[in-house]
Amino acid sequence: MGAVLNQNTLESEAVYIFREVVAQFENPVLLFSGGKDSITLVRLAQKAFFPAKIPFPLLHIDTGHNFPETIEFRDKLVEELGLKLIVRHVQDDIDSGKAIEESGKYSSRNSLQTNTLLDAIEEFKFDACIGGARRDEEKARAKERIFSVRNDFGEWDEKNQRPEVFDMLNGRIEIGQNVRVFPISNWTELDVWSYIATENIEIPSIYYAHDREIFERDGLLWSASEYVYREEHEIPVKKRVRFRTVGDMTCTAAVESDADSIDKIVQEIRESAISERGARIDDKRSEAAMETRKQQGYF
Amino acid sequence: MEVLKIATAGSVDDGKSTLIGRLLYDTRSLTSDKLESIEASSRKKGLDYLDFSLATDGLVAEREQGITIDVAHIYFSTPKKSYIIADTPGHVEYTRNMVTGASTSQASIILIDARKGVIEQTYRHFFINNLLRVKEVIVAVNKMDLVNYSENVFNEIVAEFQELRSKSDFKGQNITFIPVSALWGENIAEKSSAMSWYEGDTVLEHLEALKAEDFEEESQARFAVQTVIRPKTDEYHDYRGYAGKISGSSLKVGDEVTALPSLTTSTIKDIQFFDESFEEAPAGSSVTISLADDINVARGDMLVKSGEVPQQTKLLEATVCWMDNKALLPGNKYLLQHNTNGILAKIDRIEGHVETNFGGVTKADSLKLNEIGKVSIKLSKPVFADNFEENKANGRFILIDPQTNTTAGVGFIS
User: Is B75 on the interface with A (CB under 8 A)?
Assistant: First the structure.
């Protein structure tokens, strides 16, 4: 008591968005991947509704190829916060013949997730799906609205989006449509990491530097795992790595790093951008610049 | 970290993309991939400089594909601040995009080509900034390298713009004029040696120096309730908190408040955010407020300080910017969203078009896409509204088409 609140603009905006979702929709859900962005969403949702519990469930579309650390983390978080978790498995769709597994060197279940997600939306009749996408991630995402309407096939009509003026969010939809909601639209990667650092948010261990069996392909560091196809000459070696983003083992590459604390991670991300430019001027590349490029290859 | 949201306005070929590209480059926000492709494309075009307009080439691609261009968001940061640029490159749908971009921005950069001076487009850019009450405007007089860095040319443009300014009714606006060459990075992040006659800040210096207080509105506090928080747990058995975002000015514990529309009064008992309580929270904070008395407050209701109750009305006079293909006509019905309150509304009368060249109002009987007009709107139930000039958050609304559910227009109450 006694203090004047000094709230981060981005946090205030995200909390406002969460509250609009709960007020405007009947059946929202938070799409949870176990990655840093969705973990940040959970913290923001907690703040938005405290002292009440988060008033919607989490939905995890499990490809079956997750890092085990992510699943452990997910279950712990759900337990601690008393959340409701719904898991739908891509494997079930493969078993029932609804989805066909990709094969070969680059096979991944990443694209199969979409069908499983759309089925889950239909099964539970979710009208708002909250996700951790950010506009700085990618060109198409730069044009996303905060409330982004999807038709009953889950499609995004990017040419015909509703204008979003001021902070006024229009969540009116027809039956069968749903809205994708992006509360951290305006956050950058650095904003997310800085927030995790200031808020002391727990994240899965694979984000921190650790020793891992990896092999190199196309300039990327792949995890050696039973889920990842490996050719004979692709021999795993042990390296000190961490993950900058966390998705499936089949589509998430590691980066070489010694950052074993959140402060070091924030530092690393800050510096990787700066050294890039230095690299341009000297017309030679630093290790960190290369690292960033690899990261972008991943994206 | 502090966040500053900026909108940019400029016509085709005035170097807006180059300016944004320059800001990204000079703040080391361009990734190596992007830089490489800028270098390669610049070489291919036979240029002896880097073409920074390519930094926003996502939009160029869109243009080639003929996709409707709307607001794109560009992010960069300095050790001091995070910046978000709402880039509004549309040509056809210019007004709609500019209004959208400027609506979320605290500051605005208007570009003028030094060779052309103040043109018709400049009028429109400035007009929209006034309509939206954007407090900080930077007028960047670009392409100074093409007018021999002439101080006279710059001064003439400043004088022309000052004349335009005299037509504006927004006296609280800060306008800063900066002579720049976005292409050569002069007065963007680094001072130009070719323009030693200019002693002011560079664009980036000016942005860095802006403080949150510079954007504070001097208006009354409004607290539109988004949702009511009732945990219904043993620990918080009787807890009832009103979740919302404070606008106008700060609220304090102990403030006597009136709930609208019921006009019941109470006192603020607690202002919470997450697991902490605060004595005071400034405008812009998303908080949860508890009252001393158990009164009936729900979403759509508003808390204000007693003695600062806004006017109650069933007829709104407003300036409306139209954003839908289907024209606004007298007699049309819409859902009007004012704060968190949804009300049925009917267009009573269109007074006329507002000319974006400060030319006043001309008679009209409809409002088409990208047109701005003076409109009176009848409401099915009264609202407690402010003039937009006096209170931004409580002085605006959107009109939703009940058939398509789209956001068809935005209004500024006068």
Answer: yes
Are residues A290 and A279 in contact, defined by beta-carbon separation less than 8 angstroms? no
pTM of the model: 0.93
Mean pLDDT, rounded, for A142-149: 88
The residue type at A258 = D
- Total structural domains within chain B: 3
- The residue in chain A having the minimum alpha-carbon distance to the alpha carbon of residue B26 is A277
Radius of gyration of chain A (CA): 20
Q: Provide, rounded to the nearest whole percent, the portion of chain B with pLDDT above 70.
A: 95
pLDDT by residue (tens digit) across A264-276?
999 888 877 544 3
Helix runs in A173-261, H state only = 189-199
Q: Are residues B243 and B195 in the same domain?
A: no
* Topology of the domain covering A9-190: Rossmann fold (3.40.50)
pLDDT at A295: 33
Instruction: Round to whole Å and give the CA distance between B65 and B72.
Output: 16
* Same domain, residue pair B285 and B408: no
Residues B156 and B22 in one domain: yes
Q: Please give the structure tokens belonging to residue B414.
A: 């006068």
All residues of chain B having their beta carbon less than 8 Å from the beta carbon of residue A25 are none
Interface of A with B in 138-197 (CB under 8 A): 139, 142-143, 158-159, 161-168, 170, 172-174, 185-186, 188, 190-191, 194
Q: Which residues contact A226 (CB under 8 A, 6 or more apart)?
A: none
| C-alpha gyration radius of chain B | 24
Q: Which of residues 273-292 of A touch B (CB under 8 A)?
A: 273-274, 276-277, 279-280, 285, 289, 292
- The CATH code of the domain that includes B336 is 2.40.30.10
Q: Based on the number of CB atoms within 10 Å of its own CB, is A37 exposed (0-12), middle (13-18) or buried (19 or more)? A: buried
Q: For A135, which residue in chain B has the nearest alpha carbon?
A: B73
Residue ending a domain, choose from B151, B181, B215: B215
The whole-angstrom distance between B226's CA and the closest CA on chain A is 6
Q: Are residues B282 and B385 in the same domain?
A: no
> Is residue B33 domain-shared with residue B125, that is, in the same domain?
yes
- Identify the band that residue B56 occupies on the pLDDT scale cut at 50, 70 and 90: low
Q: In this structure, are B236 and B375 located in the same domain?
A: no
Interface contact A293-B33, CB threshold 8 A: yes
ipTM: 0.94
| pLDDT tens per residue across span A218-243 | 777 888 887 888 888 888 999 999 98
Query: Residue A249: pLDDT above 80?
Result: no
Domain ranges of chain A: 9-190, 208-298
Q: Tell me which residues of chain A, numbers 56 to 95, contact chain B at a CB-CB cutoff of 8 Å.
A: none
Taking the C-alpha atoms of residue A118 and residue A116, their distance in angstroms, rounded to an integer, is: 6
| DSSP, res B16 | H
Residues of B numbered 308-337 whose beta carbons fall under 8 angstroms of chain A's beta carbons: which are they?
323, 335, 337
**Which pLDDT value is given to residue A289?**
35
Contacts with B31 from chain A: Cβ below 8 Å: 273, 276, 292-293, 296
Domain with residue B206: its CATH number is 3.40.50.300
Domain boundary among B271, B305, B339: B305
- φ, ψ (nearest 5 deg) of residue A50: -55, 140
